């Protein structure tokens, strides 16, 4: 005898689709008297009856992201997986079109071996689920499909387009954010060695979007105005920090009070000179000033209409990379300065301040995590060249984000090599 369950709460039982065997799940749904289980028990043929629009029950379940009916239908009647609606779509096509990632995860990851025969079914237009995922620009669904090695990545639809062709066509030319969905999809296909259809080079412009110089010029001008403010602020702050050293400098009276037997330091010498954290502050602040100044100069050229548009696009990317490096270097200088001022009196507070400052790197962590997820999605298609490209690409992204810290701590490491009277 089952117990009553509110209909809106049935979906909580679908979480077992990632952990429990299929038969256990169907027995559970029968035990709680799920309405679909009762209907199928009374009339099993209803699982294969379509409505007036050509949709079968499994299509309706996929369109509403209802996992319990999908699990019940596909477990008891595996033939439902290959049913097509009036447009030739399987339930996987419908789930991708509706952007229901749970259904796609269930098919491609949890039960990937059971439904491998229907992953590459093409609809009436020749599109597979992978084609539709690219058209919709859903990165999460695309990653699920890419993780399944049974998904073919070079099939052509009836327009003669492979997934690579669709991805190229969706990526907008010119200056755009590098982590847009379509750019990430194109990068994953490239790493997986996906192939475009055979095209004549003189016809490529018919398939790929052209660059609109007027639109790009306006975007670059707006970008230069906004980012230029940030680069000038960082340059100003680092310039001021160079003349307001943490802890101050020695006055003439302080220099005269130096210990006897040693040469007095000249007036104006920083109080914390020759310390490790002070050297780190100077190097970080100098690097931040250099990067922000170069970014400012690059942005000046970005706003000049006489410069070729493609050169301006490259300068925009260059200036943005320099500004990010300047900001990260400035954060390091801030942490070194706090440590210098607090270490002798409150070591715990000094360490806590440095740790809290590191939270400013979370923007870089977001880039790293996105790159990591996209990279691992292609690992199922193992090949020596693919693995080498994946590892190299991930390492390049890490270096792109955090190279200022390699420079800072690399120069600090020379303290143990070069002669000098250093303090801890």
TrEMBL record:
<feature type="transmembrane region" description="Helical">
    <location>
        <begin position="321"/>
        <end position="342"/>
    </location>
</feature>
<feature type="transmembrane region" description="Helical">
    <location>
        <begin position="287"/>
        <end position="309"/>
    </location>
</feature>
<feature type="domain" description="PGG">
    <location>
        <begin position="221"/>
        <end position="340"/>
    </location>
</feature>
<dbReference type="Pfam" id="PF13857">
    <property type="entry name" value="Ank_5"/>
</dbReference>
<dbReference type="InterPro" id="IPR036770">
    <property type="entry name" value="Ankyrin_rpt-contain_sf"/>
</dbReference>
<keyword id="KW-1133">Transmembrane helix</keyword>
<feature type="transmembrane region" description="Helical">
    <location>
        <begin position="223"/>
        <end position="243"/>
    </location>
</feature>
<feature type="transmembrane region" description="Helical">
    <location>
        <begin position="348"/>
        <end position="369"/>
    </location>
</feature>
<dbReference type="InterPro" id="IPR002110">
    <property type="entry name" value="Ankyrin_rpt"/>
</dbReference>
<keyword id="KW-0472">Membrane</keyword>
<dbReference type="Pfam" id="PF13962">
    <property type="entry name" value="PGG"/>
</dbReference>
<feature type="repeat" description="ANK">
    <location>
        <begin position="125"/>
        <end position="148"/>
    </location>
</feature>
<dbReference type="GO" id="GO:0005886">
    <property type="term" value="C:plasma membrane"/>
</dbReference>
<keyword id="KW-0677">Repeat</keyword>
<protein>
    <recommendedName>
        <fullName>PGG domain-containing protein</fullName>
    </recommendedName>
</protein>
<keyword id="KW-0040">ANK repeat</keyword>
<keyword id="KW-0812">Transmembrane</keyword>
<feature type="transmembrane region" description="Helical">
    <location>
        <begin position="390"/>
        <end position="413"/>
    </location>
</feature>
<dbReference type="InterPro" id="IPR026961">
    <property type="entry name" value="PGG_dom"/>
</dbReference>
């Amino acid at each position: 005898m089952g117990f009553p369950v509110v209909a809106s709460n049935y979906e909580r039982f679908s979480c077992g689709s990632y952990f429990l065997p299929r038969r256990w799940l169907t027995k559970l749904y029968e035990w709680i008297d799920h309405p679909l289980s009762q209907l199928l028990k009374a009339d099993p043929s209803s699982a294969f009856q379509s409505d007036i629009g050509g949709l079968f029950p499994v299509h309706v379940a996929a369109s509403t992201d209802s996992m319990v009916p999908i699990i019940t239908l596909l477990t008891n009647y595996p033939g439902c997986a290959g049913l097509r609606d009036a447009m030739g779509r399987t339930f996987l096509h419908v789930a991708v079109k509706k952007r229901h990632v749970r259904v796609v995860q269930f098919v491609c990851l949890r039960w990937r071996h059971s439904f491998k025969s229907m992953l590459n079914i093409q609809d009436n237009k020749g599109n597979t689920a992978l084609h539709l995922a690219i058209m919709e620009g859903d990165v999460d669904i695309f990653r699920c499909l890419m993780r399944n090695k049974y998904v073919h990545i070079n099939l052509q639809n009836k327009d003669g387009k492979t997934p690579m062709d669709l991805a190229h066509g969706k990526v907008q030319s010119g200056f755009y954010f590098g982590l847009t969905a379509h750019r990430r999809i194109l990068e994953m296909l490239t790493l997986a060695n996906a192939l475009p259809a055979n095209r004549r080079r003189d016809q490529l412009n018919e398939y790929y979007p052209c660059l609109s110089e007027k639109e790009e010029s306006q975007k670059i001008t707006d970008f230069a105005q906004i980012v230029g403010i940030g680069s000038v602020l960082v340059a100003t702050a680092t310039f001021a920090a160079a003349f307001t050293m943490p802890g101050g400098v020695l006055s003439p009276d302080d220099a005269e009070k130096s210990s006897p037997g040693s040469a007095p330091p000249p007036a104006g010498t920083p109080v914390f000179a020759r310390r490790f954290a002070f050297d780190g502050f100077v190097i970080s602040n100098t690097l931040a000033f250099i990067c922000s100044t170069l970014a400012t100069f690059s942005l000046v050229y970005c706003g000049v209409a006489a410069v070729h548009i493609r050169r301006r696009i490259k300068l925009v990317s260059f200036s943005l990379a320099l500004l990010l490096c300047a900001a990260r270097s400035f954060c390091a200088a801030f942490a070194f300065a706090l440590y210098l001022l607090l270490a002798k009196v409150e070591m715990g507070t000094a360490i806590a301040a440095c740790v809290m400052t590191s939270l400013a790197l979370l923007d870089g962590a977001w880039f790293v995590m996105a790159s990591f997820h996209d990279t691992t999605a292609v690992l199922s298609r193992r090949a020596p060249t693919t693995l080498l490209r994946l590892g190299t690409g991930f390492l390049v992204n890490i270096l792109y984000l955090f190279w200022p810290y390699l420079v800072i701590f690399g120069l600090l490491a020379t303290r143990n090599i070069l002669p000098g009277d250093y303090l801890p």
